[in-house]
Amino acid sequence: AAMLPALRRCRLGPVPLPALAAALGPGPVPGLCPGWSPRAVPARGRKTRHDPPAKSKAGRVKLPPPVDPEELLVVQERYRQYRLVLSALRYRHGPGMGMGLAKPRCSGQPPAFLGVNVTPHPSDFSFLSGREERARKEEEEQKRRKLETAEKQARKMEAFLEEKEKEVLQLQEEAKNFITPENLEARIEECLDNPQNYNFAIDKDGRIVKRTVLS
């Protein structure tokens, strides 16, 4: 229903704005803004920042998408390797790499410095050996961390089993005083021979100050 007035205005065709205003009569033309033209395509209405949310989305809570921990670890490891390779290339070729600063000009003869990288530089071997040493140390550190984690898990499991064993022994000890069909008669006779009176009052220190007499 809101689009009908705009569609009616579009069907008028390329009519000049003064002629259209004269046809509609004196006074401000309803529904026309100063920059409106009959040739303009009507735009779909949009909500402002002050409009309330829709009823169907009033109680919606937007949650971030779930992240897979294993996939996150793989992505982090690959990004770490990428940064190591990129830092090595920047260290080897200088800060202008990738910015078009060292791009050779097009000419008939190739520049003289293009043959520099044909033969390996002694610094390449030192850099490669240093990188291998760092990779070896990182691998040893990862193995040490995995070993420490496995030992910690083993200690936790051992403590858990000891605690459960103590609970089982305690339950077995308490089970000796349970009332069973075999000792039911004896426990009833014991309770009748030794009556207990729990109708008493105590003070703040826990001492019995008053007790009723059993009838």
UniProtKB/TrEMBL annotation:
GO terms for cellular component: mitochondrial small ribosomal subunit. It comes from the Eukaryota. Residues 130-174 form a coiled coil. InterPro entries: Ribosomal_mS26 (IPR026140). It is found in: Mitochondrion. It holds the Pfam family MRP-S26. The keyword DNA damage does not apply. Keywords: Coiled coil, Mitochondrion, Ribonucleoprotein, Ribosomal protein, Transit peptide. Residues 40-64 are annotated as: Disordered. The keyword Mitochondrion applies. Belongs to the mitochondrion-specific ribosomal protein mS26 family. This is Small ribosomal subunit protein mS26. It comes from Acrocephalus arundinaceus (Great reed-warbler).
